[in-house]
Amino acid sequence: MSETQNPAPAANTSTPGRDRAADPVPAAPKPVIPAAAAKRANASVMGMVLALLVSFAVILPIILLNVHPKSQVYRPPVDVAAVAAQAKDAAGFTPAAAVLPDGWSTNYARWSGAGPDGVPTWEVGYVTPDQQFIALTQTAKSNPTWLSQHTNNAPITGDRPVGNSDWQLRDKPGVDKSLILQHGGTTLVLTGSAQLKEFDVLAAAVVNSLDASRSTAGASK
Question: What is the DSSP letter of 25?
Fold first, then answer.
């Protein structure tokens, strides 16, 4: 009696202990940008960069022009007496050249011929120690209309004695105040934002300069 043989088991081709889930996942393919599209993208980037550079070039000068200096700009002093001497012949009168204490400064002195109003004037701009402004205007051809316009149409509010002179005060809220004096055939107008005590200093100095000039002219004759 023959012995029955069992068939041999099939061979296991898998690697023992290896998990199929651990097999590496193939990487996703990288998108390929057509050359024309890449060129257009690069051109757009370059255009944006150029636009930014142009904008910066336009804005930079404006920024530089508006930078506040760390120190005040130096302005050479105005020689009022010298300018007044040059203007005397054209004016036909002695222009006032006030001598003021330390702390005062002058930012202009000039002779202005008759404009549309027909009134030629000697003009000096003063800065007070408190950094306020007072303008001196002197003319031999004042008239009521010019005087009213030159004093901001302010009403007469009284007189202000300064030394031996009584100046007329014109003042109203919201505008610069003015002192007015008739002296030596001319009209003197002081107008500005300073306090009246600073007006007094300038008013006295203006009259003193005219009186001194008159005394000098009389002595020379």
Answer: P
Residue 50 has what pLDDT?
Answer: 75
Mean pLDDT of 31-35: 62
d(CA 93, CA 89): 7
Tell me the CB-side half-sphere exposure of residue 36, using CA atoms within 13 A: 0
Q: What is the number of other CB atoms lying within 10 angstroms of the CB of residue 110? A: 13
Locate tokens 């600073």: which residue? 198
DSSP annotation of 21 = G
Fold classification of 80-220 is Protein Transport Mog1p; Chain A (3.40.1000)
Q: Provide mean pLDDT across the span 31-49.
A: 66
Q: CB of 179 within 8 A of CB of 169?
A: yes
8 CB contacts (<8 Å, ≥6 apart)?
Answer: none
pLDDT at 170 > cutoff 90: yes
**Are the C-beta atoms of residues 206 and 217 closer than 8 Å to each other?**
no
Question: First vs last Cα of the chain: how many Å apart?
Answer: 176
Give me the long-range contacts of 36-43 (CB less than 8 A, separation at least 24).
none
- pTM for the full predicted model: 0.66
Each domain of the chain, given as residue ranges in start order, spans: 29-65, 80-220
pLDDT of residue 220: 58
Percent of the chain at pLDDT exceeding 70: 70
DSSP code string of 26-87: PPPPPP---HHHHHHHHHHHHHHHHHHHHHHHHHHHHHHHTPPPSSPPP-PPP-HHHHHHHH
